[in-house]
């Protein structure tokens, strides 16, 4: 019987890139409605973990489930429950913002009329309505960040996964995205966030997971994890990675 309270379950997952062990027996769960921060220095395995959860990357051993659906055996069901906001601006350059969102909705079987209505709602919510009929190249970097979130939400997924959504953002845009994500979580979305910003994790999240060298170092309540003196070396490595400007 499926456990409807466990949004994401990663069980004993090991992943190699050639001879490099990118994930080493990774185990953790994210509960329904949680705001989960996933921290670690560059190369720790954060993006690889996201790729495994969303089905963008295979793995050597283990099992991944999304609300009880195996991400390999039941890929269509699990993928429909996930909305991915990646780091790259990988938009179709030949369509308008509104068309882009409608086409994205079509991948999930949403009919054009319903997709168009949903696209209008998201563009209004993320303050992009006046740009609905332009192409993404006409947008500022901040607008493109918001468009990534709109695209991830177009099929109204249960889980929103964001890979460093505020990396490179100015303060105004960062606070705007934080407000959007906080409201989405209050509305019931389970949010899985990778970040280099300790302030971001402290402000937004209830649960923090830390990964380093492909292994889970600690997962728990935010206050308990941040007070753990044994993790200071990892925290310093995360901060040093960010301050060095090498964000990946």
Round the Cα radius of gyration to an integer and report it.
18 Å
Task: Give the CA-CA distance, first to last residue.
Answer: 38 Å
Annotation field: number of helices: 9
Strand content: 25-35%
CATH superfamily of the largest domain: P-loop containing nucleotide triphosphate hydrolases
H and E string: EEEHEEHEHHHEHEHEEHH
Enter the CATH topology name of the largest domain: Rossmann fold
Helix content: 25-40%
Query: What's the level 1 CATH class of the largest domain?
Result: Alpha Beta
**Structure summary, number of beta strands:** 10
What profile does the largest beta sheet have?
Answer: 6 strands, mixed
As laid out across the biggest beta sheet, the strand order is 6-7-8-3-9-10
Mean pLDDT: 90
Q: Structural class from helices and strands?
A: alpha/beta
Q: How does the overall form come out from the CA principal axes?
A: globular
Q: Indicate how many domains the architecture comprises.
A: 2
């Amino acid at each position: 019987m499926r456990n409807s309270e466990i949004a994401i379950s990663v069980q004993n997952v090991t992943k190699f890139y050639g001879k490099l062990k990118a994930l080493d027996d990774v185990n953790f769960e994210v509960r329904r409605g949680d705001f989960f921060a996933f921290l670690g220095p560059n190369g720790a395995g954060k993006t690889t973990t996201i790729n495994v959860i969303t089905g963008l990357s295979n793995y050597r051993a283990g099992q991944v489930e999304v609300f009880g659906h195996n991400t390999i055996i039941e890929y269509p069901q699990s993928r429909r429950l996930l909305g991915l906001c990646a780091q790259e601006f990988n938009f179709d350059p030949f369509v308008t913002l509104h068309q882009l969102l409608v086409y994205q909705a079509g991948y999930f079987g949403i009919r054009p009329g319903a997709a168009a209505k949903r696209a209008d709602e998201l563009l209004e919510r993320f303050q992009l309505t006046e740009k609905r009929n332009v192409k993404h190249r006409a947008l500022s970097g901040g607008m493109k960040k918001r468009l990534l979130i709109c695209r991830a939400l177009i099929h109204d997924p249960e889980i929103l996964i964001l890979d460093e959504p505020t990396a490179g953002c100015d303060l105004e845009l960062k606070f705007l995205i934080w407000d959007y994500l906080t409201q989405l979580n209050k509305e019931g979305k389970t949010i899985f966030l990778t970040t280099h910003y300790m302030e971001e994790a402290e402000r937004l999240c209830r649960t923090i997971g830390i990964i380093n060298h492909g292994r889970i170092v600690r997962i728990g309540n935010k206050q308990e994890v941040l007070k753990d003196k044994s993790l200071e070396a990892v925290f310093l490595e995360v901060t040093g990675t960010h301050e060095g400007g090498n964000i990946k």
